[in-house]
Amino acid sequence: MALLAAAALSINAHAAPERVGDFTLIDDTGKAHQLSKYAFNKAVVIVSQASGCSMNQENIARYKQLRTNWDHRGVSFLMLNSSVDDERADIRAEEAVWNYDFPIMDDDAQLVANALGVTQAGQVVVVDPVRMNILYRGPMPGQWARAPLGQTLEAIVADGADSRQMDTVTVDMEEAEGCALDFPVADQYVAEAPDYETEIAPILIERCVGCHVEGGIGPFAMNSHMMIQGWSPMIREVIMTNRMPPMQVDPAVKSFKNSGNIPTEERQKLIHWINAGSPRD
Ligand code: HEC
């Protein structure tokens, strides 16, 4: 009976769309963007960008036209720079020359690119900022109205649209449509997850345990691997949204001695470790 029911369900069940966790990134002007704060919109279009990527440069007019067509229908537009070659200053320099005129989020840890499944500059991702579902990942088509990108936007802005009933539409990038990005850190940690005892625990001890200790002001004590593993989804969220450690300031703007900033390499270690299932060894 149980087997029969399961089989029937898998036939009828709708393949749920891919999801993305909330995140906060700072753009080229120093402004923070948190995905969930875009929840007053029906969709957010995120264009992956890299300095010197000719496919980005050649598509500027198309990006702007897409925005003109959709921003009055509840769609917001952001760019995402996940290139290991670009510092904040490089992003600003590229913007000064090319005038993209979109906020360009600085994904220096590349963690948002990983979360969105972005592998190339030029890739376009459509996200529902309310349900955090990924609805489209693919190229910027020349004639988007008839292409899957336009169809996806049309579907999500429609009255009563529910992204849980939609699929993630993935369109492969042709070589001429994007600029390949390197992910050296992700590659390293996917091959071998960071080690709990020598790499993860020392970060938590230095950055978190001061408050997250028995009787401390943090709401739970990080006193065992089990505890940290159990809290891992929440830990990922507070790291991705810059909520913990508290008191973070944009290091590109100012550096305070007591700011809670956590170095990029440490954030990458924590998130890749959690993505690997928070293993003990
Ligand atoms: C200065 C003290 C302090 C430090 C350092 C600190 N936390 Fe916290 N943390 C808190 C407090 C207070 C709360 C509860 C209030 C809140 O959510 O802001 C909290 C809440 C949390 C939560 C639960 C969030 C929720 O929404 O329930 C997580 C997860 C967390 N911290 C992880 C971390 C991690 C990971 C670090 C280290 C990278 C860290 N914290 C460092 C004080 C701290």
TrEMBL record:
GO terms for molecular function: antioxidant activity; oxidoreductase activity. This is Alkyl hydroperoxide reductase subunit C/ Thiol specific antioxidant domain-containing protein. Pfam families: AhpC-TSA (PF00578). Gene3D superfamilies: Glutaredoxin. The keyword Ribosomal protein does not apply. Coiled coil: none annotated. Residues 1-15 form the signal peptide. Residues 20-122 form the Alkyl hydroperoxide reductase subunit C/ Thiol specific antioxidant domain. Keywords: Signal.
